[in-house]
Amino acid sequence: MAYQSELNTSRRYLMGPGPSDVHPRVLKAMATPLIGHLDPQFVDIMDDIKQMVQLTFQTNNHLAFVVSAPGSAGMETCLVNLLEPGDEALICIHGVFGGRMADIAERCGARVTRVEAPWGEPIDAQQVKAALEHCRPKVLAIVHAETSTGVLQPLEEIGRLAHEAGALFLVDAVTSYCGTAVKVDEWGIDAIYSGAQKCLSAPPGLSPVSFSDKAVEALERRNTKVQSWFLDLSLVRSYWAGAKRTYHHTAPVSAMFALREAYRLVLEEGLENRFARHRRNHELLKRELEALGVEFIVHPDYRLPMLNAVRIPDGVDDAVVRRRLLDEYNIEIGGGLGQFAGKAWRIGLMGESSTPNHVNMLVSALKAIL
Q1: pLDDT tens-digit readout, 29-43
Q2: 304: which of 96, 103, 226, 353 is 20 to 30 A away, CA to CA?
Q3: Domain boundary among 225, 250, 266
Q4: Is residue 332 a contact partner of residue 13, using CB atoms and an 8 Å limit?
Q5: In this structure, are 147 and 250 located in the same domain?
Q6: pTM of the entire structure?
C-alpha cells in the first residue's frame, strides 16, 4: 500500500497561481520543535508576526493579525464580521473571486448590488459611481489582484467613492500582497485580507488581515452575532491583542514559525526592492513569451506582475502541455478558471518563484514542447 512508503514528493518549480516556492529558511523554521500555543514564547512570536503584518500592509491599524486558515477564510472573516442580515453590500466582480465575495455576502443575509467588468478588464470607477446612486452599501468590496484573470485593479478612486458614500472599503489582496504596493492607510482600506502562499512564499493555510478603527467600530455596533463562531473577531481579537491573551483556538504553531521567517525575508529584501524584482521578472517573461508568439490577455496598464494570464496558442492542447511541463520538467503552471478555462495559462512569478531562472526554465521547456 502506498501509505506504507515514506513520503517523498517530486521537486517541483511552482509557477502557477499558488502556492509558490518556499525559501529553505522558511522550511527550516517550520521544523522547529513545537511549543504550546499559549506559551509566552509563542505569544512573543505572535507579536512579531502582528508587527510584520502592519509593516507589509503599510498600516498602523491595531487590529492586524493572521487568521488560522487560508485566504478564503480571510475573505469570509471580513465579510461575516462586517455584514448583518439586511445590510447592503456593493461587490465589484471582474473574475472568480469577486463572485465568491458576492456569494458570501448573500449568505450573510446582505442585499448585494453587483458591478461587473468583462473578464480580463478592471472595474471602471465610473461604474461604481453610477451604482452608488441607487444603493447605500455598508461595505464596498473589490479584488485588487484578480487571480483568475491577471488584472491589477486601481483602488484609490474607488476607495474615495466608497468613503464618500459612507461605506467600508474592503479589499482582496491575496495575490498582490508582498508582490506589489498595497497601501492600506494611504488608500483608505478599512478591511483587507491576503494569503500566505503567494508572494509572501510561506506554506498555505494562513491569512493575514487588517481592520481599520472604523471597521472595528462597525463590528462593535452589530445587533446580531457573527454567523461563524471560529471567525468572530470579537472572540479572535482577544487571542491576538491585549495584556492577557484569551484562549480561542489552537493556532497552527509550525505554520506560524514558517510565516515569521517568510516575513523576515520580505523585510530583509525591502518592500520596494521586492516589488521591483517582481516587475523585472514579469518584463523578462513578457519579452520571452512574445518572442514565442504567446499573447497576454490583459492590457499592459493593468497586468499583474506576479500572475501572468496568457492566451493558449491556437491548436495547442492545454492539458497536454501542462502535463508535459509537470512530468518532464517538474514545472507547474495554472490553467484557466471560469470563462478562461481551456483558453488561458496562468503563470505565477510569486515570491521565491519570481527569479530569472524560473522564467528561463519555463521558456526553454515551452520551446521544446510547442
Answers
A1: 999 999 999 999 999
A2: 103
A3: 266
A4: yes
A5: yes
A6: 0.96
